[in-house]
Write a structure and sequence with these properties.
With 527 residues, the protein is an alpha+beta fold. The protein has helices spanning 2-21, 27-76, 87-98, 135-142, 190-240, 255-314, 325-353, 365-375, 396-413, 471-481, and strands at 105-111, 117-121, 158-164, 167-175, 182-188, 361-364, 382-385, 391-394, 418-425, 431-437, 485-490, 496-503. Residues 223-275 form the HAMP domain.
């Protein structure tokens, strides 16, 4: 059954592939259609002209021969009849006229001595009759013309083509000058019509073959032209996917070959540029990591000294000279800030190097956030709206880093009270959404796209602040490594809102728990 389904899917995929190549926006289809229209127009025009020329030639040749023979018979035989012939004479003369080489039917009409109309036909009683002659033709034949220098005869030969029961006929008539019989001729043009129909069929078949040939020619031309273009498109997609070693095979000296060479040169230059940038980026990350590690040793000693100085400042004995007390406090605060900066740089370096790992545990989200707030003495300034019992499998330390940065940032730059809400989301309740909202002025619209950028300062007048500009960047990286996201927006009721979305179970992303060493500092981001 699996093989059957696979075969059906393969057939459907193949049909979709064919249709995608022949979609209406496809250059291949447009090329085939244009070739076909041009060939069809040319073939139809040529066939129409050829049919019209042959039709006129065949009909004119037959018509001229018949009319010439009929006129000759009228002069020789009908002209020899008396002025008032009998029916037998008309019948005999009509038979003689019809026995000519053209084999047409003849009807002779005359007036007897007593004034009656007398008829003679070449066939039987049901043969050619006057009813088959158009009235307009009868009128033209019997109408006497004025004789002058331009017109020597009072009567002329007239003819007309008619169709009876689908069969074409040539009807002609003439009258004997100086009285006598009036003759009519009927000639079937069915053999000529059959010949013309055969010619039309032949021209139609030739047109169809020309259309098919043009379509095949267009397909061959499209394959020749579009195959290199298709290869170029595939190579461009691969290049866009990061496969910078993609190259095109160059053959020929035409424009498409020049395009392939240009693509290869551009890909080679891009690969070199990306390699240079990757090398510089790797060297930069290595420099930051090495610098951070090198700074930790002297910072440990400096931190120990500053802790002693801080204890002296807090002591009641007043052992620190009041003159140098501000400088000592400045050293203590800046040392603490430098220590946080080094820890944050090391954390950022782990994210960039891809060595940051998760240490997952089943935690109660509300309890974890409460512990984060309590550890930093923020209980009086933060309003927590979270039900107990919302469990999630995540890294507690990294959640603590995220919440410390978000809440600390809201307290420092947004304004109290800060409200933290926790709820479940998703169709199956498989997400945890944590929103941190302050009651400050909000984030300027031009700053919103950059709040998660590293070292971004929203105010140029405050280039120096207690934060390093890495807090929100580290928070969003911690959210991303959990498979979640962190967004920032302004609340319609005022203040900024940071929304953290995390999956409730990301155990499939967990790796070894010993990859992260030491805590990452938590700080507020400067807006």
């Amino acid at each position: 059954m699996t093989d059957a389904h696979g075969g059906i899917r393969g057939w459907v995929a193949g049909r979709k592939g064919v249709w995608s190549r022949l979609r209406f926006t496809s250059l291949r289809l447009r090329l085939v259609v244009v070739f076909g229209l041009v060939a069809l127009t040319a073939a139809v025009s040529a066939s129409g002209i050829a049919y019209w020329l042959n039709r006129e030639a065949v009909l004119t040749r037959t018509q001229d021969a018949v009319l010439r023979d009929f006129q000759q018979e009228m002069q020789n035989r009908a002209g020899a009849l008396p002025e008032h012939p009998s029916q037998d004479e008309l019948q005999h003369t009509a038979g003689q006229m019809a026995s000519s080489s053209q084999r047409f039917s003849v009807l002779l009409v005359a007036e007897s001595a007593d004034g009656r109309a007398v008829y003679g036909t070449s066939g039987a009683l049901d043969g050619f009759s006057l009813r088959e002659v158009p009235r307009a033709l009868q009128k033209a034949v019997n109408e006497e013309q004025k004789v002058d220098s331009a017109n020597k005869y009072p009567y002329h030969l007239y003819w007309q083509r008619v169709v009876d029961d689908g069969t074409p006929y040539l009807v002609a008539g003439s009258r004997v000058i100086n009285g006598g019989a009036t003759g009519y001729m009927l000639k079937s043009l069915e053999p000529e019509a059959k010949d013309l129909n055969s010619l039309a069929w032949s021209l139609g078949i030739a047109t169809a073959l020309a259309l098919i040939g043009s379509a095949l020619l267009a397909q061959a031309a499209a394959t020749t032209v579009l195959k290199p273009v298709h290869r170029l498109g595939v190579a461009a997609r691969r290049l866009g996917e990061g496969r910078l070693d993609t190259r095109l095979r160059v053959s020929g000296t035409d424009e498409l070959a020049d395009l392939s060479r240009t693509f290869n040169l551009a890909a080679e230059a891009l690969e070199k540029r990306v390699a240079d940038m990757a090398g510089r980026d790797e060297a930069s990350r290595r420099f930051v990591a090495d610098m951070s590690h090198e700074l930790r040793t002297p910072l440990t000693a400096i931190t120990a000294v500053t802790e002693v100085l801080e204890d002296e400042l807090e002591a009641e004995s007043g052992s620190v000279d009041p003159m140098i007390e501000p400088a000592v406090r400045l050293v203590v605060s800046e040392t603490r800030r430098l220590n946080n900066l080094v820890e944050n740089l090391m954390e950022v370096t782990r994210f960039d190097a891809g060595t940051a790992r998760l240490v997952l545990d089943d935690v109660d989200v509300a309890d974890q956030i409460t512990a984060c707030i309590d550890a930093r003495a923020w209980l009086d300034a933060v309003d927590l709206d979270a039900e107990r019992g919302i469990h999630a499998r995540l890294d507690p330390r990294r959640l603590d880093v995220i919440m410390a940065n978000l809440i600390g940032n809201a307290l420092k730059h947004g304004g109290s009270p800060v409200r933290v809400s926790v709820r479940m989301a998703g169709e199956r309740g498989d997400q945890v959404v944590i929103a941190v909202r302050d009651h400050g002025p909000g984030i300027p619209e031009d700053v919103l796209p950059h709040v998660f950028d590293r070292f971004y300062k929203a105010s140029a007048s405050r280039p120096r602040s207690d934060g390093s500009g890495l807090g929100l960047s580290i928070a969003t990286e911690n959210a991303r490594i959990h498979g979640g996201e962190l967004t920032a927006a302004n609340s319609p009721e005022g203040g900024a809102v940071f929304t953290l979305r995390l999956p409730r179970d990301i155990s499939e992303l967990a790796e070894e728990p010993d990859a992260v060493d030491g805590p990452a500092g938590a700080e507020g981001e400067v807006r």
